[in-house]
Amino acid sequence: MPPRPIKTPTLDSLLPPILALLPNAYSAHQKCLTTTARLVHSNHHQLAVEILFATSKELLKINEGSSGVESGVRMIQVMSEAEIKVDDKSRASITQLLALTPTTGPWRKKLADAAIKWSQQFGECPTGDPNLHHYIGEMYYKDRAFPLAEQHLLSSGKRDSALTLAQMMYEWCDHGRLDPGSYAVRGTLPFLAQSPPSILPALTFLTQFLSLLSSSSSAYHKNFITAIPSQTSFSLNEVHLTTSPTLNFLQLALITVQRAPAPGVSGVAARGMDGGIAKEWEGLCRRYSRNSGVNGVLAQKEVQETLMQISTEVFHIPPPRGAGGNDLLQNLMGSLFGGGGGGAGAIGAR
């Protein structure tokens, strides 16, 4: 007698018994995990991903955030084990689950963090998939979770993310009622401190943020003095002079960074006989840090460290002896709204 043929597992045969257990979320979740564990063991990873996705989606639809997200996180883990790459299909499965995840509690962040970790390993960008960062950033922005949104919108680097970031920062500074300097720094310097500097999102953010601040509906529009041509061939056609040294500095900093030495040029060659553009950068930073005042945004330790990083990496200026440190951008992002800088810590805690 010939051996009985082994049935190939299919979605149609394995998924219905799991979903039939609903609305008992615990039983459906446990059966899903057991079923998919066997599939992974027998090297049917793709089918396991499909079952975990379908089960997670149905659990989230009936507001079972815990079980739904646990199934979604397990789906992402199996995707990593199977080395499934970031593409439109794999990204869409994650964004569908994120859209269904409750806005309250830790569930949405848990799923988003797992997704970014996977995309860092199996996408083209070491900081995570830009499209996924953009989706998550906009999601948090709509939830009014501004600190979480900021991290993803900055990490995305897409033009649309920079536009959303500008709108969010405008709302965060209460339409200009709070000093917008801290918010402008947080949306500009992280891009300029990248290696190489990321000019497009910095330009997009700053021009949009200034446009919003100068609009008639802004509480800050009377602080705009005049606009003058930038007299350069670089991105900013005009510089908006305001009563804020920080806003003025950021516009000039953006232009100056674009005039920095090309990659590969040595510091000695870049400085030449007269100090070159590096000397202009040092003068710009020194002048506006002084104008900002000892309690101003530009004088804050973390901002100064970030400017020093730009000096060293972009303009090839040797750092002062004993200077330096790790995680400068993280320090910048973690400090400006925690104290000083126009009272942003208070609004961030609302």
From TrEMBL:
A single GO CC term for this protein reads: cytosol
Q: Which Gene3D superfamilies does the UniProt entry name for this protein?
A: Tetratricopeptide repeat domain
Q: Which GO terms describe its biological process?
A: protein insertion into ER membrane
Its domain of life? Eukaryota
Family of the protein in this entry: Belongs to the GET4 family.
Extract the PANTHER family matched here: GOLGI TO ER TRAFFIC PROTEIN 4 HOMOLOG (PTHR12875:SF0)
Can you say what this protein is called? Cytoplasmic protein
Record the organism.
Answer: Kwoniella europaea PYCC6329
